[in-house]
Amino acid sequence: MPVPSALGYANFIGDVSYSSQTLPSNFTAVCEQIESQFTALESVVYWPGSEDYALHTEHWSLASSLPAACSVAPASPEDVGAILRLVHATSTPFGVKGGGHNSLPGASGTAGVHIGMHKFNEVVYHEDTETAYIGSGLDWDHVYSALGEHDRLAVGGRAIGVGVGGLSLIGGFSWLTAERGLAVDNIIAYQLVLPNGDLTDVSADANPDLFWALKGGGNNFGIVTRFTVNVFEQGPVWGGLVAYPITEQELFIDALMTFNEARDVKAGILTGFHVDTSSSDGSFIFAILFYNGPTAPAGMFDKFLAMPALSNAVLPDRTFLSFLETYVLPKRAGQRMFAENINVKGYTPELIRHMFTEATADTLGAFSVTGIDAAILPIQDTGFKTKALDTAWPPHRQFMLLPAYLEAQFDDATHDSTVRSELQQLRESILQVALAEGQYPSDTTLRYEYLCSAGPAVTLDQIYGLSVARLRQVKLQVDPENIMGLAGGHKIVS
Ligand SMILES: Cc1cc2nc3c(=O)[nH]c(=O)nc-3n(C[C@H](O)[C@H](O)[C@H](O)COP(=O)(O)OP(=O)(O)OC[C@H]3O[C@@H](n4cnc5c(N)ncnc54)[C@H](O)[C@@H]3O)c2cc1C
């Protein structure tokens, strides 16, 4: 049966489905039916009140942890198929959770049937083809740990805890992107449960249109149970996190501009600042420095290393995983987090100064916002261009657009709409400066935002630009009844 839009949830506010917190009924009976239809021994239903339920419905941001009727953990693709058939037959909203890091409420949480993919957790290295099977329910650090036993690495997330499922379905910026492209450029096959519950293998040969659409199309085309990805030999790396006083903005900008001139594909950086709204003592600038080799050449990082630092965890000759462990990002248990991003060509000193000036306690502090993070993520475009596959996202590779990330941490759910609106205004003011500085494309058809932290007001056209028409065609073929529209997030409508 088609998914009725009159249900008032998980359908389309513009092109975006957003909140599912006001559902009319409970879906316990559907959960019981799912439980009775599971065939794999390890498939299980977790009920409200249990520790497992609490663990698996928890998301990185409290605002994304919705009160599901149950949390189901299928252990086979067939059981994923059974769930999809049942939620379709009963028009039950559902959420698919990988690592739970998406901060848009309803993108992977739900008030209906919560599907935890954590039992899809295999990592199988194929030495003959230099590829690996990676379960869609893993976090990237578990993948790196398993591949590390073979001195291998894959193109995946840059932080501990980020999920394979979500990141691989939206694009995927990695520490290896300057060398090897995006995560989507390194996926060579998908094991996919189609929206109608059937299991299929998707590759460039087997189903080229769907293969293209899965490269960036998010949770719109079914539920992926396994990715087959390229892997590479990986030796020791250099790097770690350095933190600086928030007052060192000009030295920081100067160091970043010097780094950007180096154009070394083995070098990476992830920087930004954190504002503590209650005390400037808790605010700081951070720079995560990375070089894909046991030591970094002199020059590009020198100014970062010479700046007065609060702490410095940079080390040579370390494993990739130990490098990631220097900056485990706090889950901030119990905190709501909203994020927005704006994709820019690059970062000028003026643009960064504007971010520092606008992302302050004065702008957001009044609304129970305890912290604001702004992240600046420059990446050299070599791998983005040379390793590019034909992908739904990004919709073109004429130039690389990088997310400038904004996040507000706050406590009070009654401030949700105010915080969202303040964050959107902050994004808009940064967008205007980026436009004036030539860092935001003036040709609207060449813009593309990143699904990673796209807010609820960001439309499909803004995310997918030139890919929208083809995405709608594939959607019509694969999911004519819009079964995936019962799950939240940014929805492609045929
Ligand atoms: C701390 C932090 C660090 C980050 N680092 C990076 C980074 O280095 N590079 C980068 O590109 N992005 C990064 N991100 C953004 C991140 O990639 C996105 O938030 C992504 O959606 C997270 O994936 P997940 O599986 O953890 O999230 P989830 O919230 O579990 O899922 C996100 C979306 O994917 C869907 N989904 C998940 N699994 C499946 C599946 N198997 N089949 C179908 N749909 C599925 C969900 O339904 C949901 O819509 C980071 C985010 C955070 C919070």
UniProtKB/TrEMBL annotation:
SUPFAM superfamilies: FAD-binding/transporter-associated domain-like (SSF56176). Residues 64-234 form the FAD-binding PCMH-type domain. The lineage of its organism: Eukaryota, Fungi, Dikarya, Basidiomycota, Agaricomycotina. It comes from the Eukaryota. Belongs to the oxygen-dependent FAD-linked oxidoreductase family. Keywords: FAD, Flavoprotein, Oxidoreductase. Pfam families: FAD_binding_4. InterPro entries: FAD-bd_PCMH, FAD-bd_PCMH-like_sf, FAD-bd_PCMH_sub2, FAD-linked_Oxidoreductase, Oxid_FAD_bind_N. The keyword Lipid metabolism does not apply. This is FAD-binding PCMH-type domain-containing protein. The keyword Oxidoreductase applies.
